[in-house]
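Supplementary Text 2. Reproducibility record for the structural model of the 269-residue chain.

All settings were left at their defaults, and a single model was retained for analysis rather than an ensemble. We include the record here because the model underlies the residue-level annotations in Supplementary Table 4.
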Amino acid sequence: MIRNYSKTIGALAAASALVAGNASATEIEGQLGLGYNTDYIFRGFDRGSDVVEAGADFTTTWNGVDFSGGLWYASIQDGHVGNAGPVQLPDGYDELDLYVEASKDLGFATAYVGYIRYQFLGTDVQILGNDVRLIDDFAELYFGLSRELIWGVNGAVTYYWDVEGDNNGYSELALDKTFKLHECVDLVTAARAGYAFEEGQIQHTTLSLTFNVKASDSVTVSPYVAYSFQGSALEGVDGNPLNSKFNLGAPPAPQRDQFFGGVKVAVKF
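Retained model, structure tokens:
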């Protein structure tokens, strides 16, 4: 899912923000991305594995306000949807996320607000002659603040307000720092902590290392590895949709701490 925005495209989202910062008032700049991920970890949820993704982001600036928008499409081969009694559910599904965002530098911090629409494809089945949608579409508004904190560490805090569905009042604190390893190679270290306000519990903590390798002026290759620690808010999630405390698409598999990784290619235009 987007924004991830781990929704597995965090690296692409960060790159888009950088592009937005350099766009002039009349320019529209864009970026295309392709990637592969061993697992689909969304806010600590294990939502499947063997994921191929593609996305597009566009940015511009008008009257001192940065605007961005885009889409993210993913094909999840092992969707961890499971079975419902005698009904065999599909092993995988596709997801399309659409987003728009506006941000402005206020001096002490950058404020941003946005909207994300999550749509799920290939999840309709027939049960007792009735068409049943296994994964419901949902949407969120989000808003937050970001700024450089100290020693080159960037921080951001974001609250996601569920418009459709129930995300348990999800909010996230994100920290990252970039190290220049070579003229064409950066190492980005990042940490994210998610919190479920309605549960009053930590949802996950995810640490990641991303190498951004600049292959040319417009092409960047970004392999990454990450580790997600399950928080107390996910302890009761056992893969049974009837027992799930969350309503964010497909019922997740039993949760656990785990490594995951992948590689992304971004092309600016």
